[in-house]
Design a protein that fits this description.
Length: about 325
């Protein structure tokens, strides 16, 4: 099979690799595509802890495709089933997943791309955020995740204030139902605007979806007394400092919304499948850029640089 290998910082080669074989309780998926996650960007940059070359397909974890081989002891899944897979070497034409880490895709999603992991992640974050009708929710960072959360929170009856640095992203937020949008450029000006919009109370819920120090600081400032600060950004480039005085004074609940339980991930993916198949959620316009496997490097660069209307890149086979 063809598989991508990171050979050094900012360098990828597509190589021939042996086909993976499913063991007991596993299935092999012939991949149709894989989403490109911003968490790939730190390995792509080549930090000191990275080891090169990577294993074939490494870093790809947002794959979908059809089952083409089934290991011993697998029930309820068959060759030909179209699935979203929670697997971790999906920048390749085939990957192996545990049978309980795949979710069948219904006929309503035939031929539609379905990067299950980030879609499921949005539903899990939304559940842990405990958002209700009538609340004001600030979402700091409108990429793929922030856009989905804008839609979910709006549909729950919350008033969403979307904050992002790019005007194109703010337009996406408006399209997804945001009641108010603020450009993320001046820390104090944003705080004053949110204070004005909330009558001085700030937001019952604030979701930080960037993964950097400044947006985390800003998100805390926008959270109301006894509100909840939900950390959805992936902070992987080093330690963070927090304003514990502010957190204490306001009595903020801080929730790290990243799941590490595979079954919680799968539950979120199932929710996403139901929502997209029923038409309650339409992520299709968020898939703004598509690349073949041999242009994965370009997809990663676009994920980093966010040209034009960029929201989400897919690698398709």
């Amino acid at each position: 099979m063809r598989a991508a290998v990171l050979t050094g910082p900012g360098r990828i080669e597509v190589e021939r690799a042996p086909m993976p074989e499913p063991g007991p309780g596993q299935v092999r998926v012939k991949l149709q595509g894989c989403g490109v996650c911003a968490s790939n960007l730190t390995p792509w940059a080549g930090p000191d802890w990275m080891e090169f070359p990577t294993k074939p397909g490494d870093l790809g974890h947002e794959g979908w495709g059809t089952i083409d081989a089934v290991g011993d002891g697998v029930t309820g899944l068959s060759v030909g089933d179209r699935v979203a897979a929670l697997s971790y070497k999906s920048y390749a034409e085939y990957d192996v997943a545990e049978a309980d880490a795949v979710v069948k895709l219904p006929p309503e999603l035939a031929d539609a791309p379905f990067p299950g992991e980030p879609l499921g992640c949005a539903f899990n974050i939304f559940r842990r955020a405990d958002i209700h009708a009538g609340q004001t929710v600030a979402i700091v960072g409108i990429g793929f995740l922030g856009a989905l959360l804008t839609r979910l929170a709006t549909d729950a009856g919350a008033r969403v204030i979307a904050i992002s640095r790019r005007e194109e992203s703010l337009q996406v937020a408006r399209d997804m139902g945001a009641a108010e949008t603020i450009q993320m450029h001046d820390h104090q000006a944003i705080i004053e605007r949110v204070k004005e919009l909330t009558g001085g109370k700030f937001c019952e819920r604030t979701i930080e979806a960037v993964g950097k120090q400044w947006p985390l600081d800003l998100a805390a400032e926008l959270t109301a007394e006894r509100g909840k600060l939900i950390v959805a950004g992936y902070h992987q480039d080093g330690p963070r400092q927090v304003n514990m005085w502010l957190w204490n004074w306001r009595g903020i609940d801080v929730i790290n919304a990243h799941e590490r339980d595979p079954q919680a991930y799968i539950a979120g993916i199932r929710e996403a499948v139901d929502a997209v198949a029923s038409g309650r959620l339409d992520p299709s316009k968020l898939y703004t850029h598509r690349y073949p496997l041999d242009r994965l490097g370009e997809a990663l660069d676009a994920t980093r640089d966010r040209p034009g209307n960029f929201i989400k890149a897919l690698v398709t086979f």
